[in-house]
Amino acid sequence: MTGTIITARTILTMDPDMPRAQAVAVQDGTVVAVGTLAHCQTALPGADVVDTGAAALMPGFVEPHSHPFMSGVATQAPAVSIAPWVAPTWPDVLEVFAATTAASDPALPLLFNGFDALLHGRPAPVAAELDEIFGDRVVVVADNSGHATYFTSALIAQNGWDTTPPTDPVGGHFARTTGGALTGVAYEVPANTLVLTPVMEALGGNPLLSAAQYFALMARGGITSTSDMTFATNLVAGYEALASLPSVPLRVSMWHVSTDEDCVEKVTFTAGEQLLVKQGIKLWTDGSPWIGNVALSFPYQDSPATERAGIDPATAGSPASMNYSRAQIDAILDRCAPTGFSMSFHSNGDLAIDRSLDAYEDALTRHGLLGTDHRWRIEHVGGARKDQFERAARLGVHMSMAPFQYYYWGDLLDGQMFDHTHGSHWQPFADGVASGACISFHNDGSVSLPTPVLNVQTAVTRRTRSGAVHAPEQRIGLDAALRAHTIDAARTLHRDHLVGSIAVGKLADLVELTADPYEVEPEHLADEVTVSGTWVGGRRIDLEEFLTAAAGATAR
Asked: Across all residues in the chain, what is the average pLDDT?
């Protein structure tokens, strides 16, 4: 009997029946035994023993909400990142603009990704300002939130929108003058897609390599399973090509955008469901807190931070920020629910969460799904209330939380964006866990870097990037935080029978850590618990092999 026995100083299984082990026996990519080395050698006699040298081995982290393919295309060359962790200030952004313009072919468009009005400390640029910087060049600047794009007059003219402005697509819209002309701003995915698609096509490059580079970035964070929450059929060939490469580091579960006519159709991947699977359908009930278009029952503050960012407290965060009417949501649910796919609603503001829960409860009742293991989802839930988590638990709705929102923006949220009572409790981890709802954590790439350990640190300490603590009562324990990035995240992806814990019969997806998280002070987790490697299906991933293969691959 062949196979491999993998060891480390300790193995954290995330399986309550055996929380720790010494060894894992793997055959044909599947775990066949967990326990002592002797037990595994008895179960798999003659197997090679591989000592990882890791201080701790865990199930690979699960990222339940991401956009891995398009994050690569949007952030890797030929696109250029201006995210706050790359270009922290607006002068830094201007330097990137100038250097990129000087080094590029003037006949080609430019795509920058990662502007953030709050963290860059100034209003979003509209066409008139971008024209002063770039002249008559086609340029798009994508908001870091993914909920807006800003573009030059040259793009407007190239698309013929200067003479015939586009109509607003369902779920998105364009900013306009009082006369109806475009100002150079689009909001939400349907409108952003109209702006971005031709620019990305004109940029050229190797989209597979760009996507592969983001796959590798996620793997370096310890992630072995993820999702694509903006899947569309035109991504099938790209995902198939990446899945066929040696040392592919990620398994991907897809949620299809509801604006596509074929969103209710099943997709069969030749790579097989263990690597690629379509699981659900996604829509957005509101927008982003960082650009002011979330639906809230409490107002934005009139503060220096909101003034610098160009967020008007008189209009930001209003119920008008809803992307769909209730009737439109009901129609989408009635079309999608009979397919058996899991529904996912993006909802940041408490009013958007209320609408999502109301629509879910009614649809689950209409379609006979109330009380079943449907695992419908709500994403981000930054402004959620305690009662909303409790209602989600009763309905069987999973809540995927975003610790990165608190980490990067927490100091602004508390007292500058919102009043102390609401802002300090943004991302209320303890309320979520106490409710009994299935809680998962995510980074929403490319909105933030794929850093599961930092998410865990944020949830157990309530420390922001500056080290400040807001609403310490919303801290949670390490067990719950690790579950939110392993087994509970796998449950949300409908993959807990395959991944999320180290147990007999599951796939041998593992992450090597340089320290045992339980032996590190919580505030030092992200510094001391680093990733030294990942395993997918019992094979240690070689990222150089994967990236080299991606550089020569094409999508068919």
From this structure: 97
**Domain co-membership, 320 together with 293:** yes
Residues 198 and 214 occupy one common structural domain: no
Sheet holding 276-284, edge to edge: 61-62, 223-231, 251-257, 276-284, 342-347, 377-380, 398-401, 439-441
Phi, psi of 6 (to 5 degrees): -105, 130
**Among the three residues 203, 219, 249, which one is the final residue of a domain in this structure?**
203
Which distant-in-sequence residues (6+ apart) come within 8 Å of 5 by Cβ?
23, 24, 25, 26, 37, 40, 41, 44, 47, 48, 49, 50
Amino acid 341: pLDDT? 98
pLDDT at site 393: 98
- Per-residue confidence at 1, pLDDT binned at 50, 70, 90? low
DSSP assignments along 33-80, one per residue: EEE-HHHHHHHSTTPEEEE---SEEEEPEE-SS--HHHHHHHHSTTSE
Residues 6+ apart with CB under 8 A from 209: 76, 547, 550, 551, 553
Q: What is the mean pLDDT of residues 17-23?
A: 98
For the residues 472-497, what does the mean pLDDT come to? 98
62: in domain: no
Number of domains in the chain: 3
Residues 368-419 pLDDT 10s: 999 999 999 999 999 999 999 999 999 999 999 999 999 999 999 999 999 9
Asked if the structure places residue 67 within a domain, the reply is no
Q: Evaluate whether 236 touches 269 at the Cβ level (below 8 Å).
A: yes
Q: Are residues 235 and 100 part of one domain?
A: no
489 has a pLDDT exceeding 60? yes
Question: Do 328 and 184 share a structural domain?
Answer: no
Q: Are residues 199 and 214 in the same domain?
A: no
Taking the whole predicted model, whether its pTM rises above 0.90 is answered as yes
Range of the domain at 47: 4-53
SS3 content of the chain, % helix, strand, coil (to 5): 35, 20, 40
**DSSP sequence for 204-270:** -S-HHHHHHHHHHHHHHTTEEEEEEEEE-GGGHHHHHHHHTSTT---EEEEEEETTSGGGGS----T
DSSP code at position 337: G
Domain with residue 334: its CATH number is: 3.20.20.140
Residue 73 in any domain: the answer is no
Q: Residue 553: inside a domain, yes or no?
A: no
Find all residues with CB under 8 Å of 328, minimum gap 6, and list them: 170
Kindly compute the dihedral angle of the four CA atoms of residues 295, 301, 305, 309, in this order, to the nearest 10 degrees: 40
Please write the tens of the pLDDT for every residue from 235-264.
999 999 999 999 999 999 999 999 999 999
pLDDT of residue 556: 58
- Phi, then psi, of 93 in degrees rounded to 5: -60, -45
d(CA 155, CA 274): 41
Give the pLDDT confidence of 21-41 residue by residue, as tens digits.
999 999 999 999 999 999 999
- Supply φ then ψ for residue 457, to 5 degrees: -55, -45
